[in-house]
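To close the chapter, one final illustration. This time we ask the reader to focus less on the individual chains and more on the assembly as a whole: which components sit near each other, and how the overall shape emerges from the parts.
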Amino acid sequence: MSQSNKSHWMKTAAGYAAGLLFGLGLAVSGMTDPARVVGFLDVAGAWDPTLMFVLGGAVVTTFIGYRLVLKRSAPLLGGVFQLPTKRELDAKLLGGAALFGIGWGLSGYCPGPAIASIGGLSLPLLAMLVTMVLGWFAARRFDA
Amino acid sequence: MDWSAGLQGLAGGMLIGLSATWLMATLGRIAGISGIIGNLITQRPKDDSAWRVAFLLGLISGPLLLMALGGGLGNVAGSPGEVIGAPVGGVGLMLVAGLLVGVGTGLGSGCTSGHGVCGLARLAPRSMAATGMFLLTALVTVYISRHMLGLGGGV
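The assembled structure is written out below.
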């Protein structure tokens, strides 16, 4: 196997491992249950704090992990660290986030759990995945 | 309060953090689902798609692996043996919700993972603002639908 082929497969395997860990994390934490997510957002009802633990555990782990990783000059498998450089808080960012929050509150699904739940596919979830992808295409038109 | 659910949340969150750290360490990428998969589908970036497809397959296989292990480590509310919970709404509601999530994360360049996990961990001002905003509109949406429109358990 040539050197570039080998590196290609290692990158693909690293991507799979990242996805698998992410999917396991969502499943272990219960984020593949939209009722838990809506329960967290329902502060005036029977509040479910689980999501707070998930986000807290994820942010703290990533904060420490990034500190260690970003001391290196480059990623282990080559290339460069691709970190967002934009700084401005524009209407597109805030308007997009606002729309996303409404959809998240209505369904209890953000993109990760919606996709990770494909193994338990139902008609409502399929409907959501289809319009989510259409929404991604629609959002691209704003960038044109 | 259900402490075991919270502990599982913490453990799962740490796995998500390990995933984000691993992806940055190996490929130098932010673990944002809407970015990784949205760009894969809408742009099909040449020479930059294979790891995205692999990530997508890994993401789907995570819960399946947990189910294959017997499902005892799932954390579905009210049914501890389950791994994947049922949708809270019907097809009509989910069509609308999906469009809002797609357009919103597309325009806002990120979702709960990209802004909420990776962005907050980087102390990025844009991600803090985005996370505050989507949490706010999600809280208001649930309040209105459950407590003002009286759409009980499922919306």
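Chain A is about 70% helix and 0% strand. The helical segments of chain A are 3-29, 34-41, 50-69, 91-107, 111-116, 123-143. With these observations in hand, you are ready for the problems at the end of the chapter.
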